[in-house]
Amino acid sequence: MSGKDDASLSPLQPVETLEPMEPLGDVPLEAKSRREWVQTAIGAWSLRRTKVGVAAFAALFAIAVFGRFVAPYEPDEFVGPPFSVPAAGYWFGTDFLGRDVLTRVLHGGLSVLSLGIAATLIGIVLGVSLGLVSGYARRWLDETIMRMLDVVLAFPSIVLAMLFVSILGPRLWLIVLMVGISHMPRIARVTRAATVELAGRDFVRAAVAVGVPKRKILLFEVLPNISSPLLVEFGLRLTYSIIMIAGLSFLGFGIQPPAADWGLMINENRIGITVQPWAVVAPVVLIGALTVSTNLMADGLARAMMGIDRDTAVT
Amino acid sequence: MPPLLKLILIRLGLGLLTLFLVTIVVFIATQGLPGDAARAILGKEATNVARYEALREELGLDRPMLTQYTSWLAGVATGDFGTSLVGGGQKVTTLLGSRVANSAMLVFLAALVSIPISIVLGATSAIWRDSRFDNVVNLGNLSLAALPEFVIGIVLVLIFATAVFKWLPSVSNINALVPLTQQMWLFVLPVATLVLAVIPYVSRMLRASTVEVLESEYVMMARLKGISESRVLWHHALPNAIVPTIQVIAINIAWLAGGIVTVEYLFGFPGIGSALVDAVANRDMPVVQALVLLVAAVYVVLNLIADILTILISPRLRTGLR
Q: Taking Cα atoms as reference points, which of A183, A224, A157 lies closest to residue B254?
């Protein structure tokens, strides 16, 4: 945010949510090419941190998706005594039931990654829709939507998910939906700000003047022009989704046993942390590497969008 | 009515409105959705219609939704959150009393440690902008901000409690009968985890606002007048840079109230976070309602305080109204 005329100085505006990332830049001042987000991505690629992020993410993605095909055992196969330290046959030792840690690690990334991506997409779709409507409709509809989003903000995301899990139980669709909903306010606000700004521009006015329907203006004039901030927002939200999904699994409200999942593995094996730390260390390192890699990419995109081209950053 | 007062009253009204809407969401999530508490408690025995109906009646779930809501809200307004569904039917308030105190202490200590560190880190990296120091802090913040709290916590446990050194306890089993001040070592790792999780946000915000202030015309003016650089910094730049940070600090303290969930669970810390995990696992609805409401209220109230402070402090807002 530019800091001049946003939430920080207008007390009537609700304040920002917690972000694991750099603030966003300003809204584009004029109609840009529809391929704007491509430009941002290319700009981001010139930063070393983006390359590191992409490389790490690609490696982790490969482990999560293809790892299962090289796993030495079945994920629910008992290969030794519980909490065995690494030895020949099980290089990372066994877990609390005597299953192979390496195998379970190779199987356990897909759930958190796919649920994280799904939650992010839901958040983007919901947030963008509300933001477009809110920013273009203004007046009472705008007010109502924004007030509703304030209410969502009042719940820390993990608490919001737990609130609904308490009665409906730990269903995966519910968790993905709640994580998506918790992203909604921030994405809606970014979209709304951009829409308000764009709605006053000449090219939108021209479209209105020639009688283009509202829906088309929003989808074909406004939306392509906020593709860059949305791309940044996607990266940012993906990081946050993964943090939350892994966190919920860690608490026991996400993926349920006997499935192999990184967050769940940490929970199951932490009682043996003094005897067999690898069953905890391996998933911890992978979750940490995954969130850091997505955040590096998001940061690269944010910098590229803001035009801060500082190649001097140490990586 | 003076415009400043009016602005504050409007903000107060909006805060109350949000709180009211929050109670509706909490109520609907816990009592208004299909699959009610009675079914949740009975589990498979819910097929026993007589028992199910009896329990529904006992819990008051057979009443119309609006009646349930108003009686619950009336209770909440007078500080009565009902009785816990598990653990011998204790009052929710007595059950949670010491836990609220423990968590409040945890959040207080985390804020106390993290805010000065963040301010120093943020301000120094703004002053030495683009230096090696700035870059290292920036990248450190970026990575720390991306790590889930429980990952930070486990790494700390591995380093300081189990695998590398065995200096600190990995479990914070606080004794309710001993004053908290005598068991401070049990707070060290949970507080350190929260501190590391909060620093990135506050320090980055402070860096951004300090950079902005340092580039402003009044700081340039002050420098041109020949005022010493340290005086420019302490009297002109930093006080203004901290204003937008007030809200970030407030949100972070509010975030701590939610972020403690995974951290308390990890360390077995007897606070509201671990209580919430237990209550959700046991489907103890009155406890879930009380805790979620508490956490949301903390967020709304802290935001309110931060907004009012911002209104009172920032000169542009004050003068803009006259």
A: A157
